[in-house]
Amino acid sequence: MKIALIAHDKKKDLMIEFTKKHRDYFEKHELYATGTTGQLIIDHTQLNVHRFKSGPLGGDQQIGALISEELMDLVLFFRDPLTAQPHEPDVSALIRLCDVYNVPLATNIGTANYLIEYLNAR
Ligand SMILES: O=C(CO)COP(=O)(O)O
Q: Annotated catalytic residue: which of 9, 24, 43, 60?
């Protein structure tokens, strides 16, 4: 599976914890991430991650492009709903494309945990 991992700044610690917890699952899949999130995951888990640009610099749109090419199977995007993002239109566009192409999307760790537990059990 091709999996996109993205976290806003205040959710990055959660993403690190999450990828550490599910490392055994993630190492069997192809991982993609926005720039800073990807680097942190690599540093803390040594997982292989294809990094795009940082979110505010176009990374969300790069992942959106893969979704529109039907090349992404799952998106785990830990959004920060309490902080204004300068690239909010890009965030909305990415979420919208998940809905256009019916790509499973978790926007918080609660849903992401359920999804990974489900996928692990298959
Ligand atoms: O801003 C982001 C998603 O909208 C995340 O980008 P970074 O992983 O580069 O911080």
A: 60
Other CB atoms within a 10 A radius of the CB of residue 97 amount to 21
C-alpha 49/C-alpha 5 separation (Å) is 9
ipTM score for this prediction = 0.98
Q: Report how far ligand 1's centroid is from the alpha carbon of 86 (Å).
A: 11
| Beta-carbon count within 10 A of 83 CB | 10
pTM of this prediction? 0.98
60 assigned to active site: yes
In the chain the domains, ranked by start, together with CATH numbers, are: 2-121 (3.40.50.1380)
pLDDT digits (tens, 9 = 90+) for 68-120: 999 999 999 999 999 999 999 999 999 999 999 999 999 999 999 999 999 99
